[in-house]
Amino acid sequence: MTGPHALPPYLLAFPGPLRDQLVAAVLRGEKVSTTGLLVEYEIEGEELPPVGERSALIDSAGREVAVLELTEVRVLPLGEVDLQHALDEGEGYSSVAEWRAGHEEFWHGAEMRAALGDPGFTVDDDTMIVAERFRVVERLPVAEV
């Protein structure tokens, strides 16, 4: 969505297989929530997105594939994530422990540590996270690259 009414990009993970998997889950209606680290917003100097904000979901090829609308934004300690949020991430988790293990693997990965500028970054129960819930407002036609 270029031009004066362009929507901000909505990025899940880093470009590659994981992003492709997550975008596909959103488009299938399986993924209706996601989790980020509050420190990411702080490092980027970004405000938290407001409920009602619309964004363009971006795939690994950089294409806008859908318009999303935020329906909930919560900031809470990692240790307080509940089962419903874990299930709504649409990644097949059946428990908070599974969800957390998957997210810790991502957050402790080299790409995330590099993005945060901290090669030893780790999370614990007190790490503040941003739990977002969204809905697909519109699927966009995607031109082949």
Automatic annotation (TrEMBL):
Q: Where are the transmembrane segments?
A: none
The record's listing under InterPro entries reads: ASCH_domain, DUF984, PUA-like_sf
Q: Where is the ASCH domain?
A: 12-138
| One Pfam family from the record | ASCH
Q: Gene3D superfamilies attached here?
A: Sulfate adenylyltransferase (3.10.400.10)
Alphabetized PANTHER family for the sequence: CYTOPLASMIC PROTEIN, CYTOPLASMIC PROTEIN-RELATED
Q: What is this protein called?
A: ASCH domain-containing protein
